[in-house]
């Protein structure tokens, strides 16, 4: 039989690479086939999630950036400066986090989803039409964010006017001036040519892009133990692969952006410049506890314990 798997990016972007590896592993170790649906073939993130919940799709990759309304606790990934900038610590967190492996799965299960994995896609960077060195520079800037209430709050705290939009509308909205900024990992800014419609790239170090892969729960629960093992092994192999795949990807992508558009400014904010952005974290965290669902406190506490463990402390 054929299992259908949709994701939010193109085939040669990070989620597509992950999905291709997952497919390869499943097909090498079972008689099942996996059919891949990249961004645009079945709709926006919200559409593919609905299709996975209803069982039209067996697998879906949807980032917490779009899962906020469904699972309010998943908004925790938008508390700025919560995840570490250090790649080894970040990977260790994703591998070992009790929040991810034990606390989140029941929350996804309530929505008819079997959470298979979460993985990082890279440092999030801002691209804007005017240079950004401080929250004041974001004043009056209509800044596109994913449709996640806490991400909206975090950009409000950064001084911007957050504008939640599905991905498919972002390029056009920048082109026509409806918005003047957006954030994404470098590989995605490069592959989707966001640099064509913005002029300044800013690294505030405030986040890493997290994504999640899920199966329809009824489908998953109905599988034989053997098939469940095939899926779990494919998930683990694809996780290792996608971490390895991303080695050097961020800096290579920044270089490609600069080569494609030499006049694009690339600015890594200094610790001093980051300070006012970092100062917003406490208020955004408080907001998370307010709007992050009944398990918000438990998730945040566990995340912090997991992050401390990943930091070796
Ligand atoms: O900004 C977005 O909406 C998209 N960014 C990435 C890196 N992946 C998918 C998502 O839709």
UniProtKB/TrEMBL annotation:
List the GO terms this entry assigns under cellular component, sorted alphabetically. periplasmic space
Q: Which domain of life is it from?
A: Bacteria
Keyword field: Periplasm, Signal, Transport
Q: Which GO terms describe its biological process?
A: transmembrane transport
Predominant location category: periplasm
Specify whether Membrane is a keyword of the entry: no
Q: Which residues form a coiled coil?
A: none
* Localization in the cell: Periplasm
Family of the protein in this entry: Belongs to the bacterial solute-binding protein 7 family.
Alphabetical list of NCBIfam families matching this protein? TRAP_S1 (NF037995)
This chain's protein is named C4-dicarboxylate ABC transporter
């Amino acid at each position: 039989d054929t299992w259908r798997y949709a994701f939010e990016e193109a085939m040669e972007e990070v989620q597509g690479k992950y999905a291709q590896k997952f497919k390869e592993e499943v097909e090498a170790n079972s008689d099942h086939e996996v059919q891949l649906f990249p961004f645009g073939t079945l709709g926006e993130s919200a559409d593919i999630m609905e299709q996975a919940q209803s069982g039209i799709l067996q697998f879906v990759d949807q980032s917490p950036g779009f899962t906020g309304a469904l699972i309010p606790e998943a908004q925790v990934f938008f508390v700025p400066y919560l995840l570490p900038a250090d790649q080894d610590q970040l990977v260790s967190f994703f591998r070992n986090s009790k929040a991810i492996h034990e606390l989140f799965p029941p929350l996804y299960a309530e929505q008819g989803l079997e959470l298979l994995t979460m993985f990082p896609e890279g440092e999030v960077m801002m691209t804007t039409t005017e240079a950004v060195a401080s929250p004041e520079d974001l004043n009056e800037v209509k800044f596109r964010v994913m449709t996640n209430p806490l991400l909206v709050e975090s950009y409000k705290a950064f001084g911007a006017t957050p504008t939640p939009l599905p991905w498919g509308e972002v390029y056009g909205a920048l082109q026509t001036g409806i918005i003047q900024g957006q954030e994404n990992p470098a590989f995605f800014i490069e592959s989707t040519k966001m640099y064509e419609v913005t002029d300044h790239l800013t690294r505030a170090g405030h986040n890493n892009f997290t994504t999640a892969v899920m199966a329809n729960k009824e489908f998953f629960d109905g599988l034989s133990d053997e098939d469940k093992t095939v899926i779990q092994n494919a998930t683990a192999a694809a996780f290792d692969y996608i971490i390895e795949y991303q080695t050097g990807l961020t800096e290579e992508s920044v270089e490609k952006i600069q080569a494609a558009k030499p006049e694009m400014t690339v600015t890594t904010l200094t610790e001093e410049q980051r300070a006012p952005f970092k100062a917003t974290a406490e208020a955004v965290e408080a907001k998370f506890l307010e709007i992050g669902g009944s398990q918000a406190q438990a998730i945040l506490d566990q995340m912090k314990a997991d992050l401390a463990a990943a930091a070796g402390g």
